[in-house]
Model the fold of this input.
Amino acid sequence: MNFNLSEEHLMIRDAARDFAQTELLPGVIERDEKQEFPAEQIKKLGELGFMGMMVLPENGGSGMDTLSYVLAIEELSKIDASASVVVSVNNSLVCWGLEAFGSPEQKAKYLPRLASGEIIGSFCLSEPEAGSDATSQATTAVDMGDHYLLNGTKNWITNGRTCEIALVIAQTDREKGHRGINALIVEKGMEGFVVGKKEDKLGIRGSDTHTLLFNDVKVPKENRIGEDGFGFKFAMKTLSGGRIGIAAQALGIAQGALDLALSYSKERTTFGKPIHEHQAIAFKLADMEMKIEQARLLVYKAAWLKDQGMPYDKESAMAKLAASEAAMWVSTEAVQVHGGYGFVKEYHVERLMRDAKITQIYEGTSEIQRIVISRDMIKNS
Done:
Protein backbone atom coordinates (compact mmCIF):
# COMPACT_ATOMS: atom_id res chain seq x y z
CA MET A 1 0.00 0.00 0.00
CA ASN A 2 1.54 3.27 -1.17
CA PHE A 3 0.67 6.46 0.69
CA ASN A 4 2.96 8.67 -1.39
CA LEU A 5 1.46 11.20 -3.77
CA SER A 6 2.71 11.12 -7.36
CA GLU A 7 4.67 14.01 -8.85
CA GLU A 8 1.57 15.05 -10.77
CA HIS A 9 -0.53 15.04 -7.58
CA LEU A 10 2.07 17.13 -5.77
CA MET A 11 2.20 19.60 -8.67
CA ILE A 12 -1.60 20.01 -8.66
CA ARG A 13 -1.67 20.39 -4.87
CA ASP A 14 1.06 23.03 -4.96
CA ALA A 15 -0.62 24.94 -7.81
CA ALA A 16 -3.89 25.07 -5.85
CA ARG A 17 -2.02 26.10 -2.69
CA ASP A 18 -0.24 28.93 -4.51
CA PHE A 19 -3.52 30.12 -6.04
CA ALA A 20 -5.22 30.11 -2.64
CA GLN A 21 -2.45 32.18 -1.09
CA THR A 22 -2.02 34.69 -3.91
CA GLU A 23 -5.56 35.01 -5.30
CA LEU A 24 -8.03 33.93 -2.60
CA LEU A 25 -6.43 35.16 0.63
CA PRO A 26 -6.38 38.87 -0.31
CA GLY A 27 -9.91 40.15 0.21
CA VAL A 28 -11.35 36.95 1.69
CA ILE A 29 -12.51 38.70 4.88
CA GLU A 30 -14.19 41.48 2.89
CA ARG A 31 -15.91 39.03 0.52
CA ASP A 32 -17.26 37.14 3.52
CA GLU A 33 -18.52 40.33 5.18
CA LYS A 34 -20.18 41.68 2.01
CA GLN A 35 -21.42 38.25 0.79
CA GLU A 36 -19.51 38.95 -2.40
CA PHE A 37 -19.23 36.18 -5.00
CA PRO A 38 -15.55 35.60 -5.99
CA ALA A 39 -16.26 36.10 -9.70
CA GLU A 40 -12.75 37.16 -10.70
CA GLN A 41 -11.15 34.29 -8.81
CA ILE A 42 -13.55 31.71 -10.28
CA LYS A 43 -12.77 32.99 -13.78
CA LYS A 44 -9.05 32.49 -13.13
CA LEU A 45 -9.66 29.01 -11.70
CA GLY A 46 -11.47 28.15 -14.94
CA GLU A 47 -8.54 29.41 -17.02
CA LEU A 48 -6.20 27.20 -14.97
CA GLY A 49 -8.36 24.13 -15.53
CA PHE A 50 -9.80 23.79 -12.02
CA MET A 51 -13.47 24.07 -13.05
CA GLY A 52 -13.46 20.84 -15.05
CA MET A 53 -10.67 18.86 -13.46
CA MET A 54 -12.16 15.37 -13.95
CA VAL A 55 -13.74 16.06 -17.36
CA LEU A 56 -12.05 14.12 -20.16
CA PRO A 57 -9.84 16.17 -22.53
CA GLU A 58 -12.09 15.29 -25.48
CA ASN A 59 -14.90 17.07 -23.63
CA GLY A 60 -12.77 20.11 -22.89
CA GLY A 61 -11.55 19.18 -19.40
CA SER A 62 -8.25 18.52 -17.67
CA GLY A 63 -8.68 14.73 -17.52
CA MET A 64 -7.42 14.43 -13.95
CA ASP A 65 -8.36 11.80 -11.38
CA THR A 66 -10.54 12.22 -8.30
CA LEU A 67 -7.55 12.36 -5.95
CA SER A 68 -6.15 15.35 -7.88
CA TYR A 69 -9.51 17.06 -7.50
CA VAL A 70 -9.62 16.29 -3.76
CA LEU A 71 -6.13 17.74 -3.26
CA ALA A 72 -7.12 20.95 -5.07
CA ILE A 73 -10.37 21.38 -3.12
CA GLU A 74 -8.54 20.78 0.17
CA GLU A 75 -5.99 23.50 -0.58
CA LEU A 76 -8.56 26.07 -1.76
CA SER A 77 -10.74 25.38 1.29
CA LYS A 78 -7.91 26.13 3.73
CA ILE A 79 -8.31 29.75 2.66
CA ASP A 80 -11.76 30.28 1.12
CA ALA A 81 -14.51 27.65 1.35
CA SER A 82 -16.88 30.00 -0.51
CA ALA A 83 -14.72 29.68 -3.62
CA SER A 84 -14.05 25.98 -3.18
CA VAL A 85 -17.76 25.05 -3.04
CA VAL A 86 -18.30 26.73 -6.42
CA VAL A 87 -15.48 24.58 -7.82
CA SER A 88 -16.87 21.49 -6.08
CA VAL A 89 -20.45 21.83 -7.35
CA ASN A 90 -19.34 22.59 -10.90
CA ASN A 91 -16.91 19.65 -10.96
CA SER A 92 -18.46 16.78 -9.08
CA LEU A 93 -22.18 17.43 -9.47
CA VAL A 94 -22.67 19.28 -12.75
CA CYS A 95 -19.73 18.22 -14.96
CA TRP A 96 -19.47 14.69 -13.57
CA GLY A 97 -23.22 14.10 -13.80
CA LEU A 98 -23.34 15.28 -17.40
CA GLU A 99 -20.28 13.35 -18.48
CA ALA A 100 -21.36 10.13 -16.76
CA PHE A 101 -25.01 10.12 -17.83
CA GLY A 102 -25.55 12.80 -20.49
CA SER A 103 -26.09 12.16 -24.20
CA PRO A 104 -23.27 12.87 -26.70
CA GLU A 105 -25.18 16.00 -27.80
CA GLN A 106 -25.54 17.24 -24.21
CA LYS A 107 -21.85 16.67 -23.51
CA ALA A 108 -20.80 18.52 -26.67
CA LYS A 109 -23.13 21.43 -25.97
CA TYR A 110 -22.34 22.06 -22.30
CA LEU A 111 -19.17 20.35 -21.04
CA PRO A 112 -16.47 22.39 -22.85
CA ARG A 113 -17.95 25.65 -21.58
CA LEU A 114 -18.49 24.30 -18.05
CA ALA A 115 -14.99 22.80 -17.86
CA SER A 116 -13.34 26.04 -19.00
CA GLY A 117 -15.28 28.13 -16.50
CA GLU A 118 -16.90 30.12 -19.33
CA ILE A 119 -20.18 29.17 -17.64
CA ILE A 120 -20.93 27.49 -14.33
CA GLY A 121 -23.75 25.18 -13.36
CA SER A 122 -25.98 24.39 -10.40
CA PHE A 123 -27.57 21.21 -9.05
CA CYS A 124 -31.17 21.59 -7.95
CA LEU A 125 -32.52 18.87 -5.67
CA SER A 126 -33.50 20.48 -2.34
CA GLU A 127 -36.92 22.05 -1.91
CA PRO A 128 -38.72 23.80 0.96
CA GLU A 129 -40.36 20.47 1.91
CA ALA A 130 -37.86 17.99 0.43
CA GLY A 131 -34.29 18.10 1.64
CA SER A 132 -33.04 14.81 2.99
CA ASP A 133 -36.17 13.06 1.69
CA ALA A 134 -35.29 13.38 -1.98
CA THR A 135 -38.24 11.26 -3.14
CA SER A 136 -40.75 13.87 -1.93
CA GLN A 137 -40.26 16.21 -4.88
CA ALA A 138 -43.01 18.82 -5.21
CA THR A 139 -41.42 20.26 -8.37
CA THR A 140 -43.20 18.73 -11.36
CA ALA A 141 -42.15 18.11 -14.95
CA VAL A 142 -45.33 17.27 -16.85
CA ASP A 143 -44.76 15.36 -20.10
CA MET A 144 -46.26 17.46 -22.90
CA GLY A 145 -45.07 15.32 -25.81
CA ASP A 146 -42.05 17.15 -27.21
CA HIS A 147 -41.23 18.98 -23.98
CA TYR A 148 -41.72 18.99 -20.23
CA LEU A 149 -43.65 21.73 -18.43
CA LEU A 150 -41.61 22.48 -15.31
CA ASN A 151 -43.14 24.04 -12.18
CA GLY A 152 -41.78 24.33 -8.67
CA THR A 153 -39.30 25.86 -6.24
CA LYS A 154 -35.76 24.78 -5.41
CA ASN A 155 -33.87 26.26 -2.50
CA TRP A 156 -30.35 26.38 -1.00
CA ILE A 157 -28.98 26.32 -4.55
CA THR A 158 -25.23 27.00 -4.75
CA ASN A 159 -24.37 29.12 -7.84
CA GLY A 160 -28.08 30.00 -8.04
CA ARG A 161 -27.65 33.49 -9.51
CA THR A 162 -24.42 32.93 -11.43
CA CYS A 163 -25.24 29.60 -13.09
CA GLU A 164 -26.05 29.46 -16.79
CA ILE A 165 -27.49 25.95 -16.58
CA ALA A 166 -29.28 24.15 -13.76
CA LEU A 167 -29.66 20.39 -13.40
CA VAL A 168 -33.19 20.17 -11.98
CA ILE A 169 -34.66 17.07 -10.34
CA ALA A 170 -38.46 16.94 -10.80
CA GLN A 171 -41.41 14.56 -10.49
CA THR A 172 -43.04 13.41 -13.73
CA ASP A 173 -45.18 10.51 -12.47
CA ARG A 174 -45.93 10.53 -8.74
CA GLU A 175 -47.54 7.08 -8.85
CA LYS A 176 -44.20 5.54 -9.82
CA GLY A 177 -42.48 7.00 -6.73
CA HIS A 178 -38.72 7.43 -7.18
CA ARG A 179 -38.98 5.82 -10.64
CA GLY A 180 -41.17 8.72 -11.76
CA ILE A 181 -38.48 11.37 -11.23
CA ASN A 182 -36.48 12.99 -14.05
CA ALA A 183 -33.34 15.13 -14.27
CA LEU A 184 -33.59 18.07 -16.68
CA ILE A 185 -31.04 20.56 -18.01
CA VAL A 186 -32.63 24.00 -17.66
CA GLU A 187 -30.93 27.01 -19.24
CA LYS A 188 -30.95 30.44 -17.62
CA GLY A 189 -32.65 32.15 -20.53
CA MET A 190 -35.69 29.86 -20.61
CA GLU A 191 -38.94 31.73 -20.02
CA GLY A 192 -40.30 31.22 -16.51
CA PHE A 193 -36.90 30.49 -14.90
CA VAL A 194 -36.68 33.04 -12.07
CA VAL A 195 -33.87 33.61 -9.58
CA GLY A 196 -35.37 34.21 -6.15
CA LYS A 197 -33.94 35.64 -2.96
CA LYS A 198 -30.32 35.32 -1.92
CA GLU A 199 -29.80 33.59 1.42
CA ASP A 200 -28.08 35.53 4.22
CA LYS A 201 -25.94 32.70 5.56
CA LEU A 202 -23.90 31.92 8.67
CA GLY A 203 -20.93 30.66 6.64
CA ILE A 204 -19.66 30.31 3.05
CA ARG A 205 -21.07 33.80 2.68
CA GLY A 206 -19.21 34.50 -0.55
CA SER A 207 -20.96 31.66 -2.36
CA ASP A 208 -24.09 32.42 -4.32
CA THR A 209 -26.97 30.62 -2.57
CA HIS A 210 -30.44 31.36 -3.94
CA THR A 211 -33.97 30.07 -4.24
CA LEU A 212 -34.81 29.22 -7.86
CA LEU A 213 -38.37 29.30 -9.19
CA PHE A 214 -39.73 27.55 -12.27
CA ASN A 215 -43.05 28.80 -13.62
CA ASP A 216 -44.33 26.88 -16.66
CA VAL A 217 -40.81 26.49 -18.03
CA LYS A 218 -40.83 24.58 -21.32
CA VAL A 219 -37.88 22.19 -21.25
CA PRO A 220 -37.20 20.30 -24.51
CA LYS A 221 -37.23 16.50 -24.28
CA GLU A 222 -33.61 16.42 -25.48
CA ASN A 223 -32.66 18.18 -22.22
CA ARG A 224 -33.63 15.16 -20.12
CA ILE A 225 -30.64 13.28 -18.72
CA GLY A 226 -30.91 9.54 -19.25
CA GLU A 227 -34.06 7.51 -19.76
CA ASP A 228 -37.50 8.50 -18.48
CA GLY A 229 -37.59 7.99 -14.71
CA PHE A 230 -33.78 8.01 -14.29
CA GLY A 231 -33.69 11.26 -12.29
CA PHE A 232 -33.59 9.83 -8.77
CA LYS A 233 -30.83 7.36 -9.57
CA PHE A 234 -28.95 10.18 -11.33
CA ALA A 235 -29.22 12.41 -8.24
CA MET A 236 -28.13 9.71 -5.79
CA LYS A 237 -25.16 8.53 -7.85
CA THR A 238 -24.01 12.07 -8.54
CA LEU A 239 -24.32 13.08 -4.88
CA SER A 240 -22.30 10.03 -3.85
CA GLY A 241 -19.34 11.42 -5.76
CA GLY A 242 -20.15 14.99 -4.71
CA ARG A 243 -19.75 13.96 -1.08
CA ILE A 244 -16.07 13.30 -1.73
CA GLY A 245 -15.74 16.93 -2.80
CA ILE A 246 -17.50 18.22 0.31
CA ALA A 247 -15.38 15.88 2.45
CA ALA A 248 -12.29 17.45 0.87
CA GLN A 249 -13.70 20.90 1.56
CA ALA A 250 -14.25 20.00 5.22
CA LEU A 251 -10.74 18.55 5.38
CA GLY A 252 -9.30 21.81 4.05
CA ILE A 253 -11.28 23.91 6.53
CA ALA A 254 -10.01 21.73 9.39
CA GLN A 255 -6.40 21.89 8.20
CA GLY A 256 -6.62 25.64 7.66
CA ALA A 257 -7.91 26.10 11.21
CA LEU A 258 -5.13 23.93 12.65
CA ASP A 259 -2.48 25.81 10.64
CA LEU A 260 -3.70 29.08 12.16
CA ALA A 261 -3.91 27.65 15.67
CA LEU A 262 -0.42 26.13 15.47
CA SER A 263 1.10 29.35 14.17
CA TYR A 264 -0.67 31.42 16.85
CA SER A 265 0.46 29.01 19.60
CA LYS A 266 4.09 29.75 18.70
CA GLU A 267 3.60 33.53 18.71
CA ARG A 268 1.39 33.99 21.78
CA THR A 269 3.07 33.85 25.18
CA THR A 270 1.48 33.47 28.61
CA PHE A 271 3.17 32.94 31.97
CA GLY A 272 6.53 33.58 30.31
CA LYS A 273 6.40 30.95 27.54
CA PRO A 274 4.69 30.22 24.20
CA ILE A 275 1.25 28.77 24.79
CA HIS A 276 2.07 25.56 22.88
CA GLU A 277 4.38 24.71 25.80
CA HIS A 278 1.34 24.53 28.08
CA GLN A 279 0.02 20.99 28.11
CA ALA A 280 -3.60 22.17 27.78
CA ILE A 281 -2.80 23.72 24.39
CA ALA A 282 -0.35 21.02 23.26
CA PHE A 283 -2.95 18.30 23.82
CA LYS A 284 -5.55 20.29 21.85
CA LEU A 285 -3.12 20.55 18.93
CA ALA A 286 -2.37 16.82 19.11
CA ASP A 287 -6.06 15.90 19.05
CA MET A 288 -6.68 18.28 16.14
CA GLU A 289 -3.86 16.72 14.14
CA MET A 290 -5.12 13.20 14.86
CA LYS A 291 -8.74 13.93 13.84
CA ILE A 292 -7.60 15.60 10.61
CA GLU A 293 -5.32 12.74 9.65
CA GLN A 294 -8.07 10.20 10.34
CA ALA A 295 -10.41 12.14 8.08
CA ARG A 296 -7.75 12.60 5.40
CA LEU A 297 -7.19 8.85 5.10
CA LEU A 298 -10.94 8.27 4.63
CA VAL A 299 -11.23 11.06 2.06
CA TYR A 300 -8.24 9.88 0.03
CA LYS A 301 -9.46 6.27 0.16
CA ALA A 302 -12.91 7.26 -1.14
CA ALA A 303 -11.26 9.20 -3.99
CA TRP A 304 -8.98 6.24 -4.78
CA LEU A 305 -11.90 3.80 -4.88
CA LYS A 306 -13.78 6.06 -7.28
CA ASP A 307 -10.71 6.26 -9.51
CA GLN A 308 -10.40 2.46 -9.51
CA GLY A 309 -14.00 2.08 -10.65
CA MET A 310 -14.86 0.29 -7.40
CA PRO A 311 -17.97 0.85 -5.22
CA TYR A 312 -17.54 3.93 -3.06
CA ASP A 313 -21.01 4.92 -1.75
CA LYS A 314 -20.29 3.86 1.84
CA GLU A 315 -16.74 5.21 1.77
CA SER A 316 -17.79 8.62 0.42
CA ALA A 317 -20.43 8.85 3.17
CA MET A 318 -17.85 7.87 5.81
CA ALA A 319 -15.38 10.41 4.43
CA LYS A 320 -17.92 13.24 4.48
CA LEU A 321 -19.16 12.34 7.95
CA ALA A 322 -15.68 12.09 9.45
CA ALA A 323 -14.26 15.14 7.70
CA SER A 324 -17.24 17.41 8.42
CA GLU A 325 -17.30 16.48 12.10
CA ALA A 326 -13.53 16.97 12.28
CA ALA A 327 -13.88 20.39 10.62
CA MET A 328 -16.49 21.53 13.12
CA TRP A 329 -14.56 20.28 16.15
CA VAL A 330 -11.12 21.42 15.00
CA SER A 331 -12.26 24.89 13.95
CA THR A 332 -14.07 25.40 17.27
CA GLU A 333 -10.96 24.34 19.18
CA ALA A 334 -8.83 26.59 16.98
CA VAL A 335 -10.96 29.55 18.06
CA GLN A 336 -10.42 28.47 21.66
CA VAL A 337 -6.64 28.36 21.17
CA HIS A 338 -6.80 31.95 19.89
CA GLY A 339 -8.83 33.07 22.91
CA GLY A 340 -10.40 36.50 22.43
CA TYR A 341 -8.52 37.03 19.17
CA GLY A 342 -10.28 34.00 17.72
CA PHE A 343 -13.60 35.77 18.15
CA VAL A 344 -12.74 38.65 15.82
CA LYS A 345 -12.83 38.53 12.03
CA GLU A 346 -9.31 39.84 11.55
CA TYR A 347 -7.85 36.48 12.62
CA HIS A 348 -9.69 34.34 10.00
CA VAL A 349 -10.30 31.40 12.32
CA GLU A 350 -13.87 32.41 13.27
CA ARG A 351 -14.78 32.37 9.57
CA LEU A 352 -13.47 28.82 9.25
CA MET A 353 -15.64 27.80 12.21
CA ARG A 354 -18.71 29.34 10.56
CA ASP A 355 -17.83 27.74 7.21
CA ALA A 356 -17.35 24.31 8.82
CA LYS A 357 -20.96 23.97 9.93
CA ILE A 358 -22.43 23.69 6.45
CA THR A 359 -20.25 20.67 5.65
CA GLN A 360 -22.34 18.71 8.18
CA ILE A 361 -25.53 19.73 6.35
CA TYR A 362 -25.30 20.05 2.58
CA GLU A 363 -25.05 17.21 0.07
CA GLY A 364 -26.54 14.97 2.76
CA THR A 365 -26.61 15.73 6.49
CA SER A 366 -24.48 13.78 8.95
CA GLU A 367 -27.61 11.84 9.87
CA ILE A 368 -28.15 10.84 6.23
CA GLN A 369 -24.52 9.72 5.98
CA ARG A 370 -25.07 7.42 8.96
CA ILE A 371 -28.13 5.95 7.22
CA VAL A 372 -26.10 5.34 4.04
CA ILE A 373 -23.26 3.71 6.00
CA SER A 374 -25.46 1.48 8.15
CA ARG A 375 -27.62 0.33 5.22
CA ASP A 376 -24.53 -0.59 3.24
CA MET A 377 -23.13 -2.53 6.20
CA ILE A 378 -26.36 -4.48 6.70
CA LYS A 379 -26.81 -5.14 2.98
CA ASN A 380 -23.29 -6.55 2.63
CA SER A 381 -23.05 -8.42 5.92
Q: What stands out?
A: The longest strand covers residues 147-158. DSSP finds eleven helices and nine strands in the chain. The mean pLDDT is 97. The two ends are 25 Å apart (CA to CA).
